[in-house]
Amino acid sequence: MELSESVQRGLQTLADPTIFDLKTFTVFIEVAFRSLLSAHSDHSILDQPELKLIEQVCLKQCHVAVTSCILEGVKLNADKSTVSSCLEDNRFESERVEVFYSLFQKHKGDLETLLSSIGSGPPHVNDVSWRLEYRIKNGHVHKVNEPSYLISLNVENGDMGRSLEDVQFNCTMEQLQDLMGKMKDAAKSLEKATQF
Question: Transmembrane ranges (predicted)?
Answer without folding.
Answer: none
